Input
Amino acid sequence: MRDTVRKVEISFCVNGETKTVRAYPMARLLDVLREELGLTGTKEGCGEGECGACSVLLDHKLVNSCLVPVLQAQESEIKTIEGIAKGEQLHAVQEAFISCGGAQCGICTPGMVLAAISLLERIPQPNQADIRHGLAGNLCRCTGYTKIFEAVVQACRTIGLQA
Amino acid sequence: MARKEARDKVTGKARYVDDMRFPGMWYGTTVRSVDARGTITNIIFDDAIPWNEFTIVTAKDIPGKNCVALIAHDQPFLADKIVNHPEEPVVLLAHPDKGLLEEARRSVRIAVAPMNPIFTMDDSLRGTEIVWGRDNVFKSYVLEKGDPSSVWAVADFIVEGTYETGAQEQLYIEPNGVIAIARPDEPVTVWGSMQCPYYVQKALMALFELPSERIRVIQAETGGGFGGKEEYPSILAGHAALLAWKSGQPVKMIYDRAEDMAATTKRHPSRTKHRTAVTKDGKLQAMEIDFVIDGGAYTTLSPVVLSRGTIHAAGPYFCPHVRVRSRAVATNAPPHGAFRGFGAPQSIFALERHMNKVARAVGLTPEEFRRRNFIQPDQTTATGQVIRENVRLPQLLERALHLSDYHAKTESYSRENSRNRLRKGIGFAAFMHGAGFTGSGEQYLASVVELEAMPDGVVRILTANTEIGQGTNTILSQIAAEALGVSYEQIEIVRPDTSLVPNSGPTVASRTCMVVGKLIESAALELKKTLIAGGHLQEVYTPAEFAEACRKHIESFGPLKSQSQYQAPPGIHWDDAKYHGDAYGAYAWAVYVADLTVDLVTFEVQVKDFLALQEVGKVVHPVLAAGQIEGGVAQGIGYALYENVVWKNGRMSNGQMTNYIMPTTADVPSIRVFFEEQPYAYGPSGAKGIGELPMDGPAPAIVNAIENATGVSIDRIPVLPETLMEALASLETVSSRA
Amino acid sequence: MRPRVSAYQLHAPDTLQAALALLEQERGTLQPLAGGTDLMVLWESGKLTHKKFLSIWKLPELKGIAVTPEHITLGALTTYTDVLEHPLLKSEFPLLCQAARETGGVATQNRGTLGGNIVNASPAADSPPALLVYDAKLELVSARGTRWVAYHGFHTGYKEMGLSKDELIRSIRLPRTDDRWRQGYRKVGTRKAQAISKVCFAGRAIVDGRRIQDIRIAFGSVAPIVLRCVETENALRSEPLGSSAMVAAKRTLAREITPIDDIRSTAAYRLKVAQNLLEEFLLTLQ
Output
């Protein structure tokens, strides 16, 4: 086994586009997204997987990107906050966060939006307990969560009407 | 109307300081003292690191004054000969490689010949070791009304109590961070996560001995502040700027969470002693209050935190004789600083717990006791301020109790509880919170705002007040739009940049909407007047006509601007020497009710429902206003039940989010918010400040509810299950002995 | 506290065989890494001394859940989300599902694995108490072959276990259970989600008439290892349900567990709450 660590080539699909980066295998997915790919919408709040500000969808599953070594994302499908809106058309969750006041300082918002989207994909009609459980890994210090719950309920309604 | 920057925030486009990069940018880090107190004997650099690649800064490099300009001039940017607290900054390092930089940071050792540190308020007050000034006391106040000493001998009841609050970490989800650029031909420029760009400018001016034109501070999108980014960013900005200046490169410094928690400011721990004389029919006759806060190693803002805590210590009650003696004392912990509420949550916790205790002593319910003592219009507060507004606290209380089903629940809980391992309790707190700077503070600030109309009819707001999540951009835009009669979309907020915006004061003290919003309103009316006087605008107009008028006016007369400077409302008289008079122009009044369960199996307290009712002058933006209350209540719940700083030799030893516990979505109760409005003449549309108000009520309401549920009286927060278990065990011992 | 990423190797072989060969070769210097929810936190805070990591996250041989009439066998890479989505686990092994649901938040549940949880060997782990009361067996593999061990007894001391440096857990096998068993699980953390446990209880019992025919009790966070409380079980087995059995059981438990004071809680709290949780469970049996 070689002792010198070399960068490796990693290909994955980010927000629908194939990307190839050269990175150290233990580089955090969070840092590769933010620094190599310039996708700064995903945030670092704690570096220990507690706050959820770094949440992304990795193969359709919500994960804390600060805890994923980029090599493990080889050939994966990744969705970040930048890939949620379709051009000017916002996702129902994003619209609801705007209209309900679900974002205050906004630093938790990208992770929170992804967590909400992930929740609604798994449970299209979540009750209060489902919403609280689904978002429990995303900390918000500004809102007290009240308007985040309202935004999720609102988004549910909108998506339900569109279905 | 939707938050001004909402779209950017929900799409990830909003750019916070760590999202920014500059060509050739390096990274900076801080080497900190491990010891709490001592003299620096040596700084040892491990050979394994290629130090020639680094920029290294120590106190000796500082071109101007090694002193953070704030109130006192006791805190250095970098420790020179002495360290006074763990985590004190000593050496700064910069390098282009973040990974190597971190390794380098761990390869510098600060050798300290230890001196005796002190870590408790008691040790500080005892004065056996003097760690600051002549007697460890940063500041003290004595507030007197009437003569309490004349009452004790003839009082029907005298009730005493001692109450304590712990430190609390602001825990903004975005850690502190700045980027500094110091090119020889440009002003020293700092981008940062901050609340007060002008505070930072002032600090850098002294650090570099440069005039204001040579220091430019720009607020980046900021991910929460809560006071934790009021004064601390001055230090971080100074550090980054020193590295940028010495290296010649832009330098980015972003704290990681552990460093931010351990090294930056927290809420001041406190201890309050109450001694109260009350008649047998429950009327307050005298209150003697001793209020002490732990300031940590340097002064920072302790005098002002102490001031606010002192003024709020006797609360929304009428009492003819009051004496409050307060002190902020030094210990060898990292300095404590601003956190939403700023001294009031501490003294109000003590007061509202104590009022319940006094009520019980005279055989009254907590609510009846409040009714008999609430201050009424034309009565005076502890500082002798005559309450001129039409405050109706008994009705506010009644409405809060009604909205929370308090009476029915009190009755049914007391019936059910003995049969249940899950005890239920309900409790409330009544309080007020003064908005804006105390007394003559706002006059001293002499805030200025500016509006500029563009040829396309867009009006730009230029203030130093920052959006940190509370809604500054939105509320100031709304106020301007309404005053000008134009659409919200026609208003733009200029990024707070000291080279562009006037000093409208700091974003603190619940003043942004009430004080600065009022200035925006005046400046807008002034702009409108100018347009009309210029002949291009009628008295009645549409937004499109307004735009057209701007174009024509600018064509005819040049730039179209208006300014407004703070004028104190008439009739405000404050005596700083005697601490007497009109402490605040406006108070918001509130009653909060906590409905909770106490699990006797695990001793966990779970708040089930929280009712927050407040009178706020005018609700300018319902969603933003409710958002402030909900967020503040959640922080207050954390303060009461979850957020415990574990201290080890002056250092926070649980500085990780896994061990410093704030509530998650699984923990918060339903928070129900209601407002009443008694317009305040000097606020925009009658609004009073509300940002800090919600911090004051939750802790005492919750601890009162715990007592209601279990009979146990706890006088210290946070109430952890471990603490509650001990308290219940003592209660059982007492009652089984009885 | 960021480690210098350029100093760390991460190898990701495609097969279990290749992974085991590397482990044999590197004996002790190569750290297996699955979902990373524990290891990456330790690594980022500078607490791991290894310079070389072996990613087993994608090894197909470690995935999957197999059901037979006698057993359910969970691949070591079974995530908490996998547990929550399996209908048989929900109906027959609810304690494991409850543990999975209360581990971290959804993001942790999507990446954390049962195998990783076991070898991280925290005495505060949430799933191990459930695995203990379900009489779990572990399949351990190395280049030298395969062996099965009872999970009970696998942990021998704080962060010490009967796993050689070249071995991996391949699967966890639970004997099928039936509805005669009454089951209970309760985790007491610092908050209701995203919390490390202060005390964690798992228990199941068969009650025949008014007597406990058989019982399993396990606790987390009250000893250097997750603990099967055999003495307490013995004090209760064949006993009639009632207050004297309760008192005896609580007393035995107090002798059997060794809680400590630490950054999250106190020994006194853990002891009292452990006793209360046992009592709460026993009351449900009456």
Chain C has a mean pLDDT of 96. The longest helix of chain C spans residues 267-285.
